[in-house]
Amino acid sequence: MGIGPALAVSGLYKRYGDLVAVDGVSFEVSEGEFFGILGPNGAGKTTTLEIAEGLREPDAGSVRLLGEAPWPRNLALLPRIGVQLQASAFFERLTAREQLETFGALYGVGSARVGEMLELVGLSDKASTPEAKLSGGQRQRLSIACALVHDPDVVFLDEPTAALDPQARRNLWDVLREVQARGKTIVYTTHYLDEAEVLCDRVAIMDHGRILALDAPARLVRDLDAATRVILERGVLPAEQARVLPGADSVTEDEQSLTISTRTAAPLLSALAERGTLGGLQVRTATLEDVFLDLTGREYRA
């Protein structure tokens, strides 16, 4: 990572009528960092991202992007940032290559760079395919290629893997890893907690316009101090025997399984091994999703 922040946000506020969309948000993103902003619907993620990009004016607070203010619209920053919005719009009737050539022409980018981007996002074999005939995952990859074609220093991605099938989502992970490996700073939002846990150096968890937690995913999980769950097939071990095992804090049972919660997994697993009950056993530790739900609650939000 480089020296100094690529993005510095301080005391950011944005209100729409009675709704406070962004409520005193502050954070910094280092050069070369993969930084995620997570939160339920309406948390303020997209608004924060749009202010950082210079697409919206904040009501209060400041943003420094690559050392400069992005608002009022800073034309000097445009060649240095790449933006992929939630809803991507392409030029009609153009092929994948023509789309990239058109975007690249805005920045004086040559055809060699276009070919490199097609290869990076795995679309070299689709270069002559009209954009309208690409799959959802291919269109998402093309959208990211358009955001990268001019070789920006900072890339903003707003839910880049939304609505993709699991295979397309994993393929896109590889693209994003490669982008970061090239020294780029990535700032992105997502609803996929497993994705953020794998890709991000640090994450900010937002709700109601505020940042509730900010740290490396592994640190956030560790600080939650959640129990480990050991899951056995029902009938392998009677519940009354499970409750007296060393390290067992609580035991629950349903029609398929018996779950033992523990904060000292080693003696519990050792005791289960002595009883020969390790076959089919599952051990589930806390994840970033547990942190997210602990901070934001479990109620559904449309």
Automatic annotation (TrEMBL):
It is found in: Cell membrane. InterPro entries: AAA+_ATPase, ABC_transporter-like_ATP-bd, ABC_transporter-like_CS, ABC_transporter_ATP-binding, P-loop_NTPase. It is a peripheral membrane protein. Its main location: membrane. PROSITE patterns: ABC_TRANSPORTER_1 (PS00211), ABC_TRANSPORTER_2 (PS50893). Keywords: Antibiotic resistance, ATP-binding, Cell membrane, Membrane, Nucleotide-binding, Translocase, Transport. GO terms for cellular component: plasma membrane. Pfam families: ABC_tran. GO terms for biological process: response to antibiotic. It comes from the Bacteria. One of its GO terms (molecular function) is ATP hydrolysis activity. Belongs to the ABC transporter superfamily. This is ABC transporter. It comes from Prauserella muralis. The lineage of its organism: Bacteria, Bacillati, Actinomycetota, Actinomycetes, Pseudonocardiales.
